[in-house]
Amino acid sequence: MLFLLIASVMILVAFLIVLPPLWRKQPAAEPDQDQRNIAIARQRLAELKEQLQTGALTQALYDEQLLELEQALSDDLDISGSLESHVKAAETGGRWMATVLVLAIPFLAGSLYWALGNYQSLTQADQAAAANQATPELEQFNKMVAGLAQRLEKQPDDALGWTMLGRSYKYLQQYPKAVVAFEHAYKLTGDQPEIMLLYAEALAFANNEQLAGKPAELVFKALAMEPDNTTGLWFGGMAKAQAGDFVAAMTLWKKLESLLPPGSEPQQEIQGLLAKLATQIPEGAAQEQAKPAQPVKTASIDVQVSLAAELQKSASPEDTVFVYAQALSGSPMPLAIVRKQVADLPLTVNLNDAMAMMPTMKLSNFEQVKLLARISKSGNAMKQPGDLIGVIEQATVTDKSSDKSPHKIIINSQVK
Fold first, then answer.
1. Can you give the pLDDT at residue 397?
2. pLDDT in the model for residue 293
3. Distances from the Cα of 87 to the Cαs of 12, 19, 43, 75, 338, in angstroms?
4. What pLDDT does 30 receive?
5. Which of 213, 208, 215 is closest to 231 using CA atoms?
6. Among 253, 292, 291, 301, CA closest to 273
7. How far apart are CA 192 and CA 195, in angstroms?
8. CATH superfamily placement of domain 299-414
9. 121 close to 151: Cβ distance less than 8 angstroms
10. Yes or no: is domain 135-290 CATH 1.25.40.10?
11. Distance between CA atoms of residues 91 and 42, nearest Å
């Protein structure tokens, strides 16, 4: 619309310059003798009409002199007809030309633009203008992100800041930088499902959206802690589908479908993916997958922890407390672990399969375990001299659904 308005104004200005001279009754001077004679006769005719109107001439004298003027002009030009008709023809010549220009110029210009122009460039120009208008906002956002990154170099222990920086880089589609930011946040927060899933997503996008390896490990670790996490179920199904395990992918996405609002766009998208997956699964496997799932064996153990009175002064409220279970023999890797502070004591925690650090090393794989509660001033997960510790050398692991009483640990000794 702006282009058409500007073009219309320019045409109007051109008409205002060109048309008035053509429309005026006075003709422009002509170089040849005939045109000069016509001009002189026209001037004389105007004088006669003025004298007739003022009464200086009678009608009879006016007719007589008009006849003489016509005769003289006829002799000069060798033409016939009245003087008024020739004068009128000369006057209307310019007006005729003006009318032609008014009609012809817009029509001709429109035809040429339709044949040779590119009206789509107007839309492209509008889009470019909109992009230029958005550029300052993007530049300001980039400055804010750069400022946050500089601040975190000086304050590297700000987990929330690293999370915000990772989200910002993800928005800017700078995935390698997002990976670094989320890695910092993960190291500071530990096994937090939200951070783990953000970290996994950034790793996947930085690797051509492939979830195999570290991203899948993070996703399924988060799902073990929060089985109904919709983001985890989405990425888990995607990881299984990329690995060719369509049955497992369908299981995860069916659960996700049941958790989404009925009729919502995300649920419809999942239903479409499930329909595609169904075509990838062999008939026998599909029937097996349709059977009701067997209950999964899970286990947990409740532990009540307190600090002996004689060691109260040896610990600070902000010191870290680790409560965990180990296998009676073999690897010392915890089967399940909880991290708290001395300020939380006394406390009761539940150790369960969701806290397993490896799928093959979890409570339900063992009947008997060793329970430990340790206070670490350094916050290090590895046992160090000077740590305060309490131990139950052997405890029975029970089914999560069975009745059980907590195992009581008193932290009453020091690691030598």
1. 85
2. 47
3. 30, 20, 10, 16, 112
4. 45
5. 215
6. 253
7. 6
8. Carboxypeptidase-like, regulatory domain (2.60.40.1120)
9. no
10. yes
11. 10
Q: Which amino acid is at 205?
A: F
Render pLDDT for 26-36 as a digit per residue (tens, 0 to 9). 444 444 566 66
Lowest mean pLDDT among 18-32, 105-119, 173-187, 218-232: 18-32
Residue positions counted in the chain: 416
User: What are the percentages of helix, strand and coil residues in the chain, rounded to 5?
Assistant: 60, 15, 25
What does the radius of gyration of the chain's CA atoms come to, in whole angstroms?
47
213-229: average pLDDT: 89
Task: For residues 374 and 409, give the distance between their C-alpha atoms in angstroms, rounded to a whole number.
Answer: 10
**What SS3 state is found at 144?**
helix
DSSP, collapsed to helix, strand or coil, labels residue 241 as helix
Q: What order of strands is seen across the sheet that includes strand 368-376? A: 336-341, 320-327, 368-376, 388-396, 413-414
Tokens of 49: 């009409």
| Closest alpha carbon to 227 in 200, 198, 251 | 251
Residue 136, preceding bond cis, omega within 30 degrees? no
Residues 415, 386: contact at Cβ < 8 Å? yes
Distance CA 370, CA 367 (A): 11
Mind listing the pLDDT tens digit for each residue in 27-84?
444 445 666 667 776 777 777 787 777 776 677 777 777 777 676 666 655 554 454 5
Distance from CA of residue 157 to its chain's centroid? Answer: 29
**91-146 pLDDT per residue, tens:** 555 556 656 665 666 666 666 656 555 555 545 555 555 555 556 666 777 788 88
Give the DSSP letter of residue 228: T
Question: Are β-strands 347-352 and 299-307 bridged in parallel, bridged antiparallel, or unpaired?
Answer: antiparallel
Delimiting residues of CATH 2.60.40.1120 domain(s) in the chain: 299-414
Supply the pTM of this predicted model. Answer: 0.42
Residue range(s) in the chain whose domain bears CATH number 1.25.40.10: 135-290
Angle at 214 between CA 158 and CA 216, to 5 degrees: 110
Q: Indicate the average pLDDT of the chain.
A: 77
Nearest CA to 113 among 189, 215, 10? 10
